[in-house]
Amino acid sequence: MPYVQLRVEGRAGEVAWDELTGSWTPATQHLEIDAQGYDSERFFLQLDGITGTGPVYLTGNGRFGYSDGVGFTASGVRAEAVRITRYGPELIEGEFRIVFGNGADSVRTSGTFGIRLP
């Protein structure tokens, strides 16, 4: 079962999710989570090569995306800090700080994510 706790700078509270899906593929160490918000927000992450705790570099190893549902859709990731904080047979968890977009048209986000494994 996946989860995402997403905070957007300048917005009160965390984004409330309506739908949340996720998967973990052990053979390729691929983690994927997709979240749809009650107010049409969308957030997704795809991380490859997860073999333990520590930093994850998105260049070549993953993708993040965000849309606020009212006009902002990320054109790219300007800055990132992604870290796997727990890695085990039952649970994979991490945290992130991501700046989506460019210049004045950018959104700062932070949060945590995870997936409970069967």
Helix and strand content put the structural class at: mainly beta
Helix content, binned percent: under 10%
- The ordered string of helix (H) and strand (E) elements is EEEEEHEEEE
| Cα end-to-end separation | 8 Å
Shape: globular
Kindly give the count of domains.
1
How confident overall, as mean pLDDT?
A: 88
* Sequence of strands across the biggest β-sheet: 1-9-8-7-5
Strand content: over 45%
Low-confidence stretches: none
Task: Please describe what this structure looks like.
By secondary structure, this protein is mainly β. It has one domain. Helix content is 3%, strand content 63%. The chain is built from one helix and nine strands; from the N terminus they run βββββαββββ. It has one helix spanning 58-61, and strands at residues 2-8, 17-25, 30-37, 42-47, 54-56, 62-67, 77-87, 91-102, 105-116. The strands form two sheets. A five-stranded antiparallel sheet has the order 1-9-8-7-5, with no helix packed on it. The longest helix is centred in the middle third of the chain and has 4 residues, at 58-61. The protein is globular and about 40 Å long. The model has no long low-confidence stretch (mean pLDDT 88).
What's a quick, concise take on this entry?
With 118 residues, the chain is mainly beta. Helices cover 3% and strands 63% of the residues.
